[in-house]
Amino acid sequence: MRAWAASLCLVAFCFSPAFAQDAAPAPDPKIDLAVKILQETHALDHMSQALDIMLPQLVNLIKQQAPNLTEDQIKMVSDMIGEEMKSTLPKMVTANARIYASHFTLDELTAIEQFYQSPAGQKVIAETPAIIKEAVPLGIAWGREAAAEVLPKVIEKLRAKGVKI
Description:
- By secondary structure, the protein is mainly α.
- Helix content is about 80%, strand content about 0%.
- Helix 2 (about 30-40) crosses helix 4.
- It is extended, with a radius of gyration of 20 Å.
């Protein structure tokens, strides 16, 4: 059950670059423009799409950690997690807007917005869902492979230092 909770924390971590901050937008033109850019580029939809791709991985972890759950119970847990996490995504738009505002000047944000209004920018917006659909599973697979390769080496090094693991 601890691993299941840890899995939930991992998913939360993946979606929380600035979540600890108050999500209410400040009256700052840079933040307002960054929010507009994120809205125009469908950032909320992309976050939701990434969550939809990651959720089955989390469900598999839940199945492993709680094998006594029925399929109906697992579906109920999956639906609840997805619904609850998606309900927090709008806060992420504001949190990410703050990050954008801290990294770009107002002039740079204006140029970014103009780019997304250009034909090339519109193509980026249009192609991003397909890119996410391909990249997220690739990232998950890479993470599994890297962990499988790295963890035995780390354990060996820890044991060589006298850590009992």
